Amino acid sequence: MSDILQKIQEAVSHSVTALYGEPVDASKVQISPTPPDFTGDYSVVIFPFVKMAKKAPDVVAGEVGNLVREKVSEIKGFNIVKGFLNLELEDACWRNFLQETVGNAHYGRRPANGIKVMVEYSSPNTNKPLHLGHIRNILLGWSCSKILEATGHEIVRSQIVNDRGVAICKSMLSWKKFGEGKTPENSGVKGDHLVGDFYVLFEKKTKEEYDAWQETDAARQVYEAQHKPTQTEAVFFKEFKNKWFNEYSTLGTEVREMLRKWEANDPETIDLWKKMNGWVYQGFDQTYSDLGVSFDKLYYESNTYLLGKDIVEDGLKKGVLFKKEDGSVWIDLTDAGYDQKLVLRADGTSVYITQDLGTAKMRYEDFGCDRFVYVVADEQNYHFQVLFEILKRLEEPYANGLYHLSYGLVELPGGRMKTREGTVVDADDLITEVIRLAEEQSNEQGALAEVPEEQRSENLRKVGLGALKFFITKVHPKKKMIFNPEESVDLQGQTGPYIQYSYVRINGLMQRMAKEGIDLSIANAYDPIQPQEKALLIALHEYPAVLLSAAEAYDPSLVANFCYDLAKKYHKFWHDLSIFSADHAAAKAFRLQLSKCVGQVLQSGMDLLGVDMPERM
After folding, report:
1. Are 38 and 81 in contact (CB under 8 A)?
2. DSSP-assigned states of every residue in 502-571
3. Helix (H, G, I), strand (E, B), or coil: what is residue 343?
4. Strand order of the sheet with strand 297-300?
């Protein structure tokens, strides 16, 4: 049964060649599950053969169908609808498929293929906690890595932590000036939140300083000398803020001095930097643990920001890069539809692209991966197009294995649930909220009222996080999305809890089956298979192909939507057909076996999304 589709493709290919004299690549024969409104299991698209046959589509379908049926003994019959050849397989095929699949915990997964892939995700800054955008990034990276792993790839999970620069120094200076010795321990505030609060405080103090400066004679002189005739004071000072911070602000001067000391390896500054970053890392680790994700390798910008200069020198020698009169180094990408790109400043300091060139090479030297997947928001699309083009022109051996998993913005409906900067939703707040909503829903139903508190809390955690993870991953990465916490826990919607509830139902069946000692060995005597059962079997048969498509497209939404469709089909099966009250023992055994297989695949698919299945709901 595992190769039945390939067998049909080959039979169609041979039949078309025999009938019409033209060779057809069997792998190009299009086969898909027959739509539920028509009779059949799989449909073959006939239109590609019409031109060579010089006959009407229905005629071609009939001629091909007759030959294919002779060649493939598993085909019970066929029908033709508007140029589609709908094939129906013998029930014995499906019974055998179920026997082969049930109990196989590795069903759908592929053996090792020798391809090593690094997936980079999260990559936060150490001046604030993880936020809603990070959650989408993390869940996409984690689920893609799991799907790639399931399809035979060796995976290295990594992140690069942006732990240096002006933004980091703002938090440090803010704590130094206004912190009064606060720590996560003596304040009771999670480390990343504490540092983020001081970053927000710095911005508040900067605004106060700027507002006060605008009332001074110095500000009046600047406005009179530099404003455009059409600019009001309000517009001018709004646009002037960055320049003011760099040229007039006392806090700005202190931040730049702190950054200078950091780069000079000043002991006091480095100690403060290590201490505050340590608080942030403890906070990040807790959030990662709550989300159930981890990393194999951490890179830090403080160790990588000087990388890339050797690559630039090599590029100059090869003539790929060029130097301008001021000493800055560039690459001309206009012939590829981009622009000229700066890769090294005139003073010899790096820009972001320099660092990324060096980091890419370091990763390759560290792990020798065949592919590198960067999970980064779509606002960086141009940056990665340029980075990949430069590496190709530099003839780096890994250049053709680079992929930018670009994703769209994610927001909450009707404003934001809670913010610390007026613009960001904290990941921790969101995790707490979805678990609270799961608890609220559970209390209304009373389903867990008698469950011990520890088990109850664990179940609610699985349901809440399952709601969050599924809702995020079910959307195609490139699409912008709105995450609705209330909608995510809806048991009747396209949600994680809906799928989890199907699994819980099945788990209850399995417990009852074990308790009653039901013999499943007679399942193969069941006949005939009902449409609701056939729909589940066809869906189960598609699972390996779905995983492969998801891996090839770096798209977890294919797995998420497969799980929802499978749960939906099981819901119909549950309501339409009796299981323990089936007409005869073979039907009961077959339906229990089918249920077990569905539960097994639901658990497998949801695990690839990072979703744990609860025992009760």
Report:
1. yes
2. HHHHHHHHHHHHHHHT---GGGGG--SPPHHHHHHHHHHHHHHHHHHHHHHHT-THHHHHHHHHHHHHHH
3. strand
4. 297-300, 154-161, 116-120, 371-377, 402-407
> Which pLDDT belongs to residue 423?
57
532 near 569, Cβ under 8 Å?
A: yes
The string of pLDDT tens digits covering residues 307-347 is: 999 999 999 999 999 999 999 999 999 999 999 999 999 99
Helix locations, 394-484, DSSP H: 427-445, 453-473
Residue 36 tokens, joined:
């539920």
Residue 512 CA to residue 563 CA, distance in Å, equals: 24
In 3D space, the residue among 302, 256, 279, 295 whose CA is nearest the CA of residue 127 turns out to be: 279
Distance of CA 582 to CAs 94, 277, 520, Å? Answer: 19, 62, 14
Alpha-carbon radius of gyration of the chain = 30
Report the pLDDT value the prediction gives residue 418, as an integer from 0 to 100.
46
Compute how many other C-beta atoms are within 10 angstroms of the C-beta atom of residue 527. 11
List pLDDT tens digits, range 239-287: 999 999 999 999 999 999 999 999 999 999 999 999 999 999 999 999 9
Contact indicator for 322, 332 with CB cutoff of 8 Å = yes
Task: Report the 3 state secondary structure along 430-442.
Answer: HHHHHHHHHHHHH
Tokens describing residue 405: 């998993």
Helix 453-473 with 427-445: angle, nearest 10 deg = 120
183 pLDDT band, cuts 50/70/90, is very high
Residue 414 has pLDDT above 60, yes or no: yes
The tokens for 77 are 């019959």
Nearest to 119 by CA among 363, 357, 330, 470: 363
C-alpha 125/C-alpha 184 separation (Å) is: 18
Find all residues with CB under 8 Å of 118, minimum gap 6, and list them: 155, 156, 157, 158, 363, 367, 369, 371, 372, 373
Alpha-helical runs (H) found in 299-426: 301-304, 309-318, 352-367, 381-393
pTM above 0.85, yes or no: yes
What's the pLDDT score for residue 447?
Answer: 72
Sign for the pseudo-dihedral over CA of 356, 360, 366, 372: positive
Domain limits of the chain? Answer: 4-89, 165-293
What is the rounded CA–CA span in Å between residue 166 and residue 168? 5
Q: What is the DSSP letter of 615?
A: S
Amino acid, res. 182: K
Residue 220 has which token pair? 């009046």
Residues 451 and 463: beta-carbon distance below 8 Å = no
Mean pLDDT across the chain, nearest whole number? Answer: 95
Burial class (CB in 10 A: 0-12, 13-18, 19+), 229: exposed
Instruction: List the CATH code of the domain at 4-89.
Output: 3.30.1360.70
Task: Report whether 159 contacts 122 (CB < 8 A).
Answer: yes
Q: How many CA atoms lie within 13 A of 471 on its CB side?
A: 29
The answer to whether the Cα torsion of 539, 545, 546, 547 is positive or negative is positive
Percentage of residues in the chain with pLDDT exceeding 90?
A: 92
| pLDDT tops 70 at residue 420 | no
Per-residue confidence band for 2, with pLDDT thresholds at 50, 70 and 90: low
DSSP, res 399: G
Quickly state the pLDDT bin for 601 (edges 50, 70, 90). very high
